[in-house]
Write a structure and sequence with these properties.
heterotrimer, A alpha+beta (about 1000), B alpha+beta (about 90), C alpha+beta (about 190), A: about 1000 residues, alpha+beta, seven-stranded mixed beta sheet, 21 helices, about 20% helix, B: about 90 residues, two-stranded antiparallel sheet, 6 strands
């Protein structure tokens, strides 16, 4: 098809042709076109179907406020629903499809909804589909969802990347129309760091859409020249295709830059969009204004556009929406459309001015004091019906109608901190109110200063005021300074038909009336009940009309009625943009242990523990099931020796003359009395008396300790220690530093642990020289500094040996090689878990943040002879009850029976109800030594029930198993092995 | 939000971890105060709509604990102090 | 001294060098690092000892280069001191001997991975990675910041030269973040 509706002029590059398709039909456009302008130029007005009634719709605007012309853009994983054709920059090969229609846009079967509109008024789903209840999910909701909707989401993964970034400036200018350009020029020439951001791909705002001159040139040329000057200033950053989406606290603004949306496919490695966090000393909102329509019956037909949009399509894009044009206006600006289009050679049939005194254009028929009351044309406008001042109706054949109800300043961002806009009767619109975001000034049309001169002047003055500039400011070029003359007209009262307010959500004047009739008087309630302004366009064109109609119905003034709250984002943001690079495997960073490379070489299975990847088990050839590997690792360790990477445990270096005293305060037990060269198990409480963390702390010197924490709590314990050090006891001489990653630490456990270590440690580590709970600095492999701790989590003779991380891999290989005669194995977290449960050591399941030392059987560790965090509140009545939970061991009476963690204790014969609940299993493993499942659990008065039989019940898993309550120390209860 | 760190100047609140009411500095002495005093210390907090002194930890920074005076309604921050200085001024020592 | 062979943070025998467009990322496995914290009330003693030992103790948010010791501020009364690994692998012991009981010294060499970034201007890269106002801060600025969820120390050596210290266990993730950001920018 040729570009039948292309007219002369505009800022498109006619030397190049771009090919694109809409619903499979091929069209052509030019660089500089949007999808909407190119379709209009090709004579296509019908671009979508409405949300609820499936009414045929075309664009009403030429910008981001567009409610109607929403399409599905691109295909495959890049398919993007609800994309506004009015801001979609045309590129060669663009593919777009209409949405919410079946089987085709021109014939949509769901158009039947329009005939059934009486059933679909506001709140219909609250009333209609009440019963039977079960029908809602199964029947009503799926049908409604299919019938009412927007575009569809692709099921494929988005192949593109999204990025994030941070920017800093003295002044952020939001919007690059005449106001923003002048503000940026003023601040930029003064040497300030300026960011000028605009959602459009061409800077200049309305200057690109108007015909009047600025200085000696056209507005568009002035804009281009100003942009060119700004581009030469190194302190100014021009950001096209960048929407400032919100004002956040203390000068932080969010912005989305569409880096590659105007390309078929992003360049290699380049993001599709970037989410910017902008730190701005000051900001100027120069976001301009949005024209609003007037609601009248059937005002939603393709071909009925905002008057300013018709002008923009003609002047900027050289496209006309029709051959025979009428304009319906209540203000002078609408008349400009008639003038401009007449100059472009369009047949301007009539200007319908609701006022009596509007300007007259020679050669054009003016109907003063008249209103458009209806329109016709099934898939596009064919005629309008006008009610003249004398009450007579007349039908006029037109295929395009420009409607102007006045302009609404884009106050949104100024209201993001709940500042309420103020109604200004002089322009019949809301302007920014008090208490906007500190540091944000508003200028130009966004502040209600509509003339071009006012825009330039207020833009310049705002920059001077924001930055307290002194000295010469740019001269203001000569330009139009027309006053705003508007007589409010929100909707045309006539007949019983539907007059659209919110075209995207299909909200009509009738719906507002219904809401009022049903006693919804607050605008916030009106919004929720009718869904006015809740679509993806957030009611940019409709909201003010809706509340004005509401005001009329309630008899309140417009200011009394007020607006709803404005919230970010200004325009919709793709979820991928918010996610940025953090998705899939890159969602968060990984932490790798020093033995990772060895483990990977040997086919280890890894488990994510926080960000750490830890070895879970290391399967050997022939092992097909995880239990085989884990059982083998446990048995081999207990028989000879096993090695486990325990680097992930938090390690904190604590030094200072008060280090011991400090530890006494943060641990429930005492550390100041610990001898140098020894370590001790420490129990850390929260101030509320619950157990916070545990671990072994060693005294490496008089004023030097090394604390270990659990892997999970490494960060929170460090934070807590800093709190204690800085906020509670600020004069203690204590210094803290994390050394978790500095040392590769391995547990070496089993009867042959010492013999193996003797092969690598340079010093004497015999039981006499290095007794149980010994700790100290040693060297390995001929002089490498190392730390050795004789501690055991497994219950075996065990040590933990640490070397600087870079040597960890080599030390592991050396131990395996040098100790080959002992058949050492590397075990993972599963075997670690089995062995600690066999020994009754508490860990994750028991350290649940709701358990006390007493619950864990560690009550005696809480010293009352000194002040320590949690000591006092651990003595609260409810936490010291004899009947409270106690840690117990559990094994099934039938060794074949299975246990599951989370199961509950019940007495034999007791009904499985909450009142009879005796506690729960916290951790469960299979013990290859005991030959059955074993578990740890918290059982009420459990210390008095050792030896008794009970049941553990899991109603979800259908388990009801008889068990014996045993000591949690299920393996080597006397501890003979670990002292060996 | 931006927190004006007394040593490092303006820093994004994203770098901080929030703890709560700055009254957590006023920990009673466990050897003399009883359960009641600790209960009040730990659980009795005011929840003002307005000015609030609160503890923030510069975890992704210099690890300073700060006392930030912030209006909970407007988020305006009127004062930022090192918690250590505040604690000392309250007579806390070792 | 010992027979054990070291691995770099990225798990290789030698340091990595990666080039993406105008950017060069060089892994620095040849730096020794230790934290030095003044004991309570002993800053004057520490400063004196540090001066005679040639250990700089820069002001807050500062980095000071020297030979063999350079240092950057990390927290009130705390610094990270770096020196060549080949001569100062035992940096903690050396500093302890030099600074005596006025300071708490802890070895930090292998807690971190160090990457040197070089390009004509690193601003476009760093603005995709962290909130540091890189263009405005002076040479010798050192700060802790966050890159892709990782806490890192950033030292501005020049407009086109930065040293990053990131958590050693996440060296691969940090390098990946640098590479992706660089590809995105250049």
């Amino acid at each position: 098809m040729t570009q039948s509706h292309r007219i002369a002029g505009g800022q498109i590059d006619r030397t190049k042709t771009l090919r694109f398709t809409f619903d499979g039909v091929r069209y052509q456009g030019h660089p500089g076109d949007t999808l909407a302008s190119a379709l209009l130029a090709n004579g296509v007005r019908l671009m979508g179907r409405s949300f609820k009634y499936h009414r045929p719709r075309g664009p009403i605007s030429a910008g981001s406020e567009e409610p109607n012309a929403l399409v599905e853009l691109r295909t495959g994983g890049r398919q993007e629903p609800n994309t506004r054709a009015t801001v979609t920059e045309l590129y060669d090969g663009l593919e777009a499809n209409s949405q919410n229609r079946w089987p085709s846009l021109r014939f949509d079967a769901m158009g039947i909804n329009d005939k059934l509109s009486t059933f679909f008024a506001a709140g219909f789903y609250y009333k209609t589909f009440m019963w039977p209840k079960s029908f809602w999910e199964k029947l009503y909701e799926p049908i409604i969802r299919r019938a009412a909707g927007l575009g569809s989401v692709t099921r494929e993964e988005d192949p593109d990347a999204y990025d994030k970034g941070f920017l800093h400036c003295d002044l952020l200018v939001i919007g690059a129309g005449p106001t923003g350009l002048m503000a940026a020029l003023t601040a930029g020439r003064a040497g300030k760091r300026v960011i000028l951001a605009d959602e459009d791909f061409r800077l200049g705002g309305r200057l690109n859409a108007e015909t009047f001159s600025v200085g000696q040139t056209s507005g568009a040329d002035w804009a281009a020249a100003t942009v060119a000057e700004l581009a030469t200033l190194p302190n100014v950053r021009l950001m096209t295709r960048t929407t400032v989406i919100g004002a956040f606290d203390h000068g932080i603004y969010g912005a989305v830059e569409r880096v590659s949306d105007h390309l078929a496919v992003p360049a290699q490695g380049k993001p599709r969009q970037v989410l910017w966090r902008i730190y701005a000393g000051k900001a100027i909102l120069a976001a301009g204004a949005t024209e609003r329509p007037v609601a009248f019956e059937n005002n939603d037909r393709p071909g009925i556009l905002l008057a300013g949009a018709l002008r923009a399509y003609a002047n900027r894009w050289g496209a006309k929406a029709g051959e025979r044009l009428a304009v319906f206006t209540n203000n002078d600006d609408g008349i400009r459309t008639a003038l401009d289009l007449q100059a472009k050679g369009v047949d301007v049939v009539a200007v319908i001015d609701s006022r009596e005194g509007g300007d007259l254009i020679p050669g054009v028929r003016h109907l003063r004091g008249a209103e458009v009351i209806d329109s016709s044309g099934k898939l596009g406008l064919k005629s309008i019906t006008v009610r003249q001042a004398n009450g007579r109706s007349e039908t006029i054949a037109v295929d395009a109608l420009g409607v102007s109800g006045g302009w609404n300043p884009n106050v949104n961002i100024h209201s993001h901190h709940r500042s309420r806009p103020i109604y200004d009767p002089a322009i019949a619109a809301f302007v920014p109110g008090q208490d906007g975001p500190p540091g944000l000034l508003v200028a130009g049309a966004a502040a209600g200063a509509f003339s071009t001169h006012a825009a330039l002047r207020t833009g310049r003055d705002a920059a001077i005021a924001a930055l307290e500039l002194i000295g010469a400011a740019p001269d203001l070029p000569e330009t139009e300074d027309a006053p705003t003359r508007v007589t409010p007209l929100w909707h045309v009262a006539h007949g019983k038909g539907r007059a659209w307010i919110d075209q995207q959500n299909d909200v009509t004047v009738k719906d507002v009336k219904l809401a009022h009739q049903e006693n919804f008087t607050s605008v916030e309630h009106l919004k929720r009940y009718t869904t006015l302004g809740m679509a993806t366009d957030q009611g940019k064109t409709g909201n003010v009309i809706g509340l004005a109609v509401m005001a009329e119905l309630t008899g309140r003034s417009i200011p009394e009625t007020g607006t709803t709250i404005y919230r970010p984002p200004y325009t919709p943001v793709a979820l991928g943009t918010l996610a940025g690079r953090s998705r899939g495997k890159k969602f968060k960073p990984f932490r790798l242990t020093p033995s990772h490379h060895w483990a990977k070489e040997h086919g280890a299975i890894f488990v994510e523990v926080g960000n750490w990847l830890r070895t879970q088990w290391v399967p050997k050839a022939g092992e097909t099931e995880w239990r085989q590997s884990v059982d083998r690792e446990v048995l081999a360790t207990r028989k000879s020796v096993g090695i486990c990477d325990v680097t992930t445990l938090g390690k904190i270096d604590i030094q200072g003359t008060d280090a011991g005293a400090f530890l006494d305060r943060v641990y429930a037990n005492t550390f100041s009395s610990l001898a140098v060269g020894k370590c001790r198990y420490g129990l850390m409480l929260r101030e509320d008396g619950m157990v916070f963390d545990d671990g072994t702390t060693a005294r490496m010197g008089t004023n030097e300790y090394v604390m270990t924490t659990t892997t999970a709590n490494a960060v929170t314990v460090f934070r807590h220690l800093e709190f204690c050090r800085q906020c509670l006891w600020p004069d203690m001489d204590v210094q803290l530093i994390s050394t978790t990653e500095a040392w590769a630490q391995f547990s070496v456990a089993g009867p042959n642990a010492r013999k193996l270590l003797e092969k690598v440690v340079d010093q004497d580590i015999s039981d006499a020289a290095f007794p149980y709970m010994g700790a100290g600095n040693v060297t390995v492999c001929g002089g490498l500094r190392a730390r050795l701790f004789r501690i055991s989590f497994s219950g075996e003779l065990a040590y933990e040996i640490a070397v600087p991380t870079r040597y960890g891999d080599a030390l592991l290989r050396e131990m395996l090689a040098k100790g080959a005669e002992f058949d050492p194995i590397v075990y993972g977290t599963e075997a670690l878990g089995v062995m600690r449960i066999e020994k009754g050591h508490v860990a994750g399941g028991e350290l649940n943040g709701q358990s006390t030392a007493l619950n864990m059987g560690l009550g005696k560790m809480v010293s009352k002879k000194k002040d320590a965090i949690g000591m006092v509140l651990s003595q609260r009545e409810g936490m010291t009850a004899e009947t409270g939970y106690r840690l117990v061991g559990v094994k099934p009476v039938d060794p074949q029976a299975k246990l599951t963690a989370g199961s509950h204790f019940l007495e034999k014969g007791a009904a499985p109800v909450a009142a009879n609940d005796g506690g729960w299993l916290t951790s469960k493993v299979y013990s290859p030594h005991l030959g059955c499942d074993i578990a740890l659990g918290y059982l009420k008065a459990g210390d008095k029930k050792i030896g008794q039989r009970m049941r553990i019940v899991n109603l979800l898993a259908g388990l009801d198993t008889e068990v014996e309550i045993i000591s949690p120390h299920m393996f080597d209860p006397e501890g003979e092995r670990l002292r060996g | 939000m931006i927190i004006h760190h007394p040593i490092l100047g303006p820093r994004d609140a994203q770098e901080f971890v929030y703890l709560g009411d700055a009254s957590l500095i006023d920990r009673p002495d466990g050897m003399t105060a009883g359960i009641e005093a600790f209960h009040d210390y730990l659980y009795q907090r005011s929840n003002p709509a307005g000015e609030h002194r609160e503890l923030w930890y510069h975890e992704q920074g210099d690890r300073s604990w700060l006392v930030v005076t912030r209006n909970t309604v407007t988020h305006e921050i009127t004062k930022v102090e090192l918690a250590r200085d505040v604690a000392r001024a309250k007579g806390r020592s070792k | 001294m010992a027979s054990l062979q070291a691995l770099t943070a990225l798990g290789a025998r030698g340091p990595a060098v990666v080039e993406i467009g105008p950017l060069r990322i060089t892994e620095r496995a040849d730096l020794a690092l230790a934290s030095v914290a003044a004991r309570r009330g002993r800053f004057t003693d520490l400063a004196a000892a540090a001066q005679s030992a040639g250990v700089p103790l820069p002001e807050a948010a500062g980095y000071q280069a020297g030979a063999p010791y350079s240092a950057f501020w990390t927290a009130p009364d705390m610094w990270f001191v770096e020196a060549p690994f080949a001569s100062h692998e035992l940096i903690a012991g050396l500093l302890k001997a030099a600074l005596g009981d006025a300071a708490s010294v802890t070895e930090q060499t292998d807690a971190w991975v160090a990457f040197d970034l070089a390009a004509a201007d690193l601003t476009p890269l760093l603005e995709r990675l962290c909130n540091v106002d890189f263009r405005s801060v002076p040479k010798g600025y050192a700060t802790r910041t966050v890159m892709e969820h990782l806490g890192v120390y950033l030292v501005k050596l020049d407009q086109g030269a930065v040293r990053l210290y990131g958590p050693r266990s996440s060296a691969q993730s940090l390098l990946h973040a640098l590479e992706v950001a660089a590809a995105s920018v250049w």
